Amino acid sequence: xxxxxxxxxxxxxxxxxxxxxxxxxxxxxxxxxxxxxxxxxxxxxxxxxxxxxxxxxxxxxxxxxxxxxxxxxxxxxxxxxxxxxxxxxxxxxxxxxxxxxxxxxxxxxxxxxxxxxxxxxxxxxxxxxxxxxxxxxxxxxxxxxxxxxxxxxxxxxxxxxxxxxxxxxxxxxxxxxxxxxxxxxxxxxxxxxxxxxxxxxxxxxxxxxxxxxxxxxxxxxxxxxxxxxxxxxxxxxxxxxxxxxxxxxxxxxxxxxxxxxxxxxxxxxxxxxxxxxxxxxxxxxxxxxxxxxxxxxxxxxxxxxxxxxxxxxxxxxxxxxxxxxxxxxxxxxxxxxxxxxxxxxxxxxxxxxxxxxxxxxxxxxxxxxxxxxxxxxxxxxxxxxxxxxxxxxxxxxxxxxxxxxxxxxxxxxxxxxxxxxxxxxxxxxxxxxxxxxxxxxxxxxxxxxxxxxxxxxxxxxxxxxxxxxxxxxxxxxxxxxxxxxxxxxxxxxxxxxxxxxxxxxxxxxxxxxxxxxxxxxxxxxxxxxxxxxxxxxxxxxxxxxxxxxxxxxxxxxxxxxxxxxxxxxxxxxxxxxxxxxxxxxxxxxxx
Length: 591
Known about the structure:
20% of the residues lie in helices and 28% in strands. It contains twelve helices and 34 strands. Strands 12-20-19-18-17-16-15-13-14 form a nine-stranded mixed beta sheet.
């Protein structure tokens, strides 16, 4: 802008004559950029805006004009021997305006910086608070998986250890966390918007109620829904209440890593909102678990979560490629073929398998390169030692390592007899079924071998040639079925309803066993009558005795074919639930 020069009581054309200053009306002056030398400024206007190149004093000698654009100082020469300095007369108001503008700008800037500083301080405080919330001994995802290999896999508590405890309950989570296994948690949402730890969208399978969880209010879930775990886990269990996700996170987050999955679509957003609002530190110890079809991976990755994405048997490589950038770990089912699991492993990211119930599955999976085991009985599958040597079936609580031929199905589960037969157990009366007794396996062998002793009875006698018994000597805990082809071989003790006692050798891959020695005739059992047996396995022989009488023995049969440490109970050829055999007082002894 152009600034005004002159127009004040000091701005006149004057000449010094002697000791006097005399006004010179009408004098013409030139304008310069410096007091000496410099450049003449000709880009001037009069007070009405008409361009001029020099300045003419008014009739009273006063001077007034507008200088060049943005000039605030100039020097005028009227030809009287010197130049006089002129300062723009409107500079005070300009400076004031500019100062006001600068002050306003500075105020805005200060306010913005204060807001930013407050936000940064709040974020820092939140971060510090989050760090303080987590236990000092936290096991982070990085710490958990940093050194994991097929030779040293990581084990997760699938459904909170749901094959030995009521699944997705506080009792299950606490026991699993106490053993330092990461928790796998599934959630669904109720009608009030509360998230509960529950695998299925409905409550039918695992509780005493039916219908969608989303049709129950929070109060109804809390007061009226309990687990129905006893048929699967034994009458010794007290049924449990469902547990809200928030309670589980408050108790376990940061103490053990968590794999968290909202199962139904309507639970996804509430889970995300809960994590965002209340658990900003969760990505340190939570893995976002999801099916390959999920749309939630970008949300998880944007917040720093690691992701575990599990596949269907028909998932294509193209589908995996489309999600790969947002996937940290892949998930395969134990039912997948070796070839398919190897293909997933070959993609180069860590692979976790589900659901792992047996040590034999661990051996297969680690051999294929899998590094994570999602197990509902992690204590059993992660160890290679027996947990006890004598049964406590009177407590009617399922033991770790108890492996029916089909898992998570009460039809095939070990059955604990009610009063007056407390202490006796039986196997589902489905053809050729058995239950592995992994909690006693592999049997700790003494210098002279080992002994298995037990009682057995038929509450109702089956047909005379039908039988039940035990199998033993297996190298692996893979399922055993009488008259079926099995993956590994072993021995099978047959006790018939007519009293015949027989020891069979069952070769892997064959359907029928081969009788060892001769069939031993013992007194026929009576309904509900107790029989007692003793199996001795030495380094060179196998012998079976019925000890509730005398002389009933196969003798020491010379055979070293099977010396594996796994055994279990078998219905043999009995398929009628009423006539199935019962067992009690199992004891394993070193010889």
